[in-house]
Amino acid sequence: MNEEAVQANVQTMRLDLAAEPVTMQRGGGSLTYLRKIGAVFVKDVRAEWRGREIFSTMTAFSVLAVLVFGMAFDLRVPRSEMIAPGVLWVVVLFAGVLGLNRSFGAEVDRGTLASLLLAPVDRSAIYFGKMLANLFFTLATTLVILVVMFFIFDLNMFHPYNLLAVLLGVIGYVGVGTLFAALTANSRARETMLPILLLPVMAPVFVAGVGLTAGVVDGKQFSDLRQWLVILAAFDAIFIVVAYLLFDLIWEDA
Amino acid sequence: MGSTTVRTNASGWRGVDTIQLALGLLAVAAMTISMWAALYYAPAASNLAGDEQIAQRIFYIHMGCNIGALAGFLMSVIGSIVYLVKRDLDWDRVSQASIEVGLICGMGTILTGMFWAKPTWNTYWTWDPRLTTSAITVLVYLAYLLFRNGIEDRRTRARFGSIYAVVAFLSVPLTFYSARLFRSIHPVVYGAENVDAQGGFSVGATMTQALNINMIAFCVLFSALLVLRWRQLRNEDAIAELREELE
Amino acid sequence: MGECVTDSGLIVARNITKRYGRKRVLGGVDLTVAQGKVMALLGANGAGKSTLMRIISGLTKPDRGEVLLGGVSARKAGHEIRRYIGLVAHAPLLYDNLSAWDNLQFFADLYDMQRPAQRIEAVLHAVDLWPRRHDAVRTYSRGMTQRLAIGRAILHDPPVLLLDEPDTGLDPASAETLAQLIRSLGASNRAILLTTHNLERALLWADSIAVLSDGKITQSASTASLTTEIVRQWMTEIGA
């Protein structure tokens, strides 16, 4: 860059920056809060869409897992309905961990976490934004699992109550999982630590989910299924509130 | 704001030493009485026979361990919440110590449960609610200790451990409830349901006494071990601090 | 721009103490940067410069001491005060998979900017990245990434700018762009605190220099009274 060009640049720089003063909406209420949650969500989904690292890993793992279970139980179990509920929830839980690891793992590895923590917003907005992104990816993976199981296990699990159970279960899962992902993000053994922390805590979701899916597969009435839905809903409500309250405490030493 | 500095005297007998000794002696006495109560004082279950009848006595110790695990659970949640509010590391040590002692009691619950189950139901393991919850609780305890192990900074360790403890232990009652809904072949001694579950036995007055003695004894044992372990953790932190001052 | 209630120091750090486990990284640091001034912080590697920057930016809490920005205590102000801080750190704080435009759009959303498109355009022109604005950041050179990182920091026009080694690894052309930027920014009623390993640049860009050694500020003077030799002498004294 020669001297004149540099000088010209300096002139334009000063001019441009001054000509576009910044107005930031200060304070703001719940609408700005929600908008920021949306911004984090959109950013995560967009970044994943451009890179497509995690979604492909989650789906590949899921397909593989369903196939392995199918082979393992082939000819040992008279009817696939016997094991299908368990297989569904096991694969959802294990595949989900992959996505959860990424949600904060990528930020830590690439060093972008600080940029989120510098934003003038309550840190819980980061929690909700990432939780929604994880929800999106995990639900998409679950859809793939259901489709694969439809073919491999010859079983249609697209029943509305089952889909509702899956939705509620995954909400609870990413609700707690996003919090734990943030807790483990900075540790060296992040990939192994997250499932160890998360899976025992997900036991109620797992039991209720399997109970409900089994009930649907067995053709039970809604009155029998309702108690499982109540457990799932209670889990979601309790843990999302608790996670929201505790999330801010994680970042005192970024 | 709490610091990691622990006020220690170089030597000399202090109040907490007396408490520790008293609790220790009390625990020895209590456990002796509880063993006597379980193995001798309590009458044999009338509707059982042979191995099953003898194995039934494990039940008292099993319930004792259970209460120990429950105590560990409760103390750790209290310790974690108080730490997050007050940031006093003593409370974090309460949390960690109670989880460690609770872990031992929890494993005891599972082991005694297995020794009881085999002669009674001819299987080591069943997925009934109490055993399921015990297994999950032991896993949560282990996860807590593993998690803490991987964190270098003392205060971050306390903070993260407390956050995990609060969340994880909230899930345990729900686990119990959902497992109970799922199925049960464990004799529910105090409830009216499942009275005809296999292996159930009606509890007479003397048996209830033996049971209560055991539960109290294990509470005393838990307290003694908790105080001991808590002091050990204090000393560990004090040593770490002195070491870094010397460096 | 901000509620600056004092004209003495826009950035004030008082008695900042921080330990990490066994190491006492900062032991009572006092620092003041007045409005319209640029201060360069020098020190050996690992002396705690980055830690101090992170504490002033609010990412890390100090064990003791406090940070005042525009007279307002950072601890009491909550998250709104972050609106007035811009940070360039060691890591670029940019999303690899997204383009420069998408990155800046995201940050504009996080800072509640009202007319982001025009501002983003101005910033991209200022850091000379306009032609590459739709390319993913992972295709950028180190110099381009650093320029975009600076663009991100000034996007919301913060009165407090913290630049942690902004010139490391830059090619001469990018370094020159950076120099122009700092000069124009410094002249505009901001307070800029930067760290660098390049003593000449420090003297050229800054109004005052402070040296951080062993967790404390050991030297502090205005650049008008300094020469390269004096500063080099300081650095040798602290073993840098």
Structure commentary:
The complex is a heterotrimer of chains A (254), B (247) and C (240). Chain A is mostly helical and 254 residues long. Chain A has one domain. Chain A contains 10 helices and no strands. Chain B has one domain (16-206). Chain B is 76% helix and 0% strand. Chain B has helices at residues 15-41, 50-55, 58-86, 89-121, 129-149, 154-182, 205-246. Mean pLDDT of chain B is 84; it is low at 184-199. Chain C has 240 residues and is an alpha/beta fold. Residues 1-7 of chain C have low confidence and may be disordered. Chains A and C meet through helix 1, helix 2 and helix 5 of A and helix 3, helix 4 and helix 6 of C.
Assembly state (oligomeric): heterotrimer
Mean pLDDT of chain C: 85
Number of beta strands of chain C: 10
Class computed from helices, strands and strand pairing of chain C = alpha/beta
The most extensive interface, with participating residues per chain, is: A-C, 48 and 55 residues
- The portion of residues forming beta strands of chain C comes to 25-35%
Order of helices and strands of chain B: HHHHHHH
Total of helices of chain C: 8
First-to-last CA distance of chain C? 38 Å
Structural class of chain B: mainly alpha
Order of helices and strands of chain C: EEEHEEHEHHHEHEHEEH
Instruction: List low-pLDDT spans of chain C.
Output: 1-7
Shape by Cα distribution of chain B: globular
| Widest β-sheet, arrangement of strands of chain C | 6-7-8-3-9-10
Averaged pLDDT of chain B: 84
Shape of chain C: globular
Tally of domains of chain B = 1
Summarize the structure.
The complex is a heterotrimer of chains A (254), B (247) and C (240). Chain A has 254 residues and is mainly α.
Which properties best describe this structure?
heterotrimer, A: 254 residues, mainly alpha, 78% helix, globular, disordered N terminus, B: 247 residues, 7 helices
